[in-house]
Design goal:
single chain; alpha/beta; Rossmann fold; 7 strands; globular; binds 2-hydroxyethylsulfonic acid
Amino acid sequence: AQRLANKTILITGASAGIGKATAYEFADASNGEIKLILTARRLDKLSELAHDLLAKYPKLQLHVVDLDVSKLETIPSFISNLPKDFADIDVLVNNAGLALGKDPVGQILPEDIQQMFQTNVLGLITLTQAVLPILKAKNSGDIVNLGSIAGRDPYPGGGIYCSTKAAVKSFSHVLRKELINTKIRVIEVDPGNVETDFSITRFKGDVTKAKDVYKGTEPLIGEDIAEIIVFAVSRRQNTVIAETLVFATNQASATHLYRNE
Ligand code: 8X3
């Protein structure tokens, strides 16, 4: 709790899933003595979340913003217009991201290609570039990037999603190397199957297809990944948990899953 006290933490994609769980986990680990900037496209969901967080953690300082990281042109002004109390970001959690479809190359919708790269890659890069000067100015802080098993072990039907997560990995590596003479930490967390809205989004609302992804397995939940993010951020400053690959016990690769059916 001491190491997190009074830090300012920006989480994208905070309205659901891993992002939302990470907001709760940071609040919990710091006894609410933290500043959270939570962004997502859905302001109604964020407002609900803000209400609940403040009820549970009255000391929490909270700033919610409807930000769509795929709208790159909105990112610099979002950062430069942060209220004074929230402007000095310590931790950026680049969580916003999505998969759309599982079609083979040749049949992928151009708009899905565009949206995945725009959000998972260009949004993440643009926001990181906007926040980095703040971290550099004080020579401290953390950038947490949500990668995926998909970035390490690409699978058929993941032509675009896997490529975006490989790009996240490559970008994280470059950043860690470029920041070698600073105290800034680059932390990448690569989850396997986590049951969130991820598959419902991927299959565009087809709940049966989404449920089939996890059928006969006990997938991770958002909280499992949130715990790891908060653990990594709350290590001693000289300790960098550079990369973690996180599976449920019945998963061993992107495609190797034991299903108890
Ligand atoms: C989510 C995991 O395997 O569906 O990043 O790509 S997977």
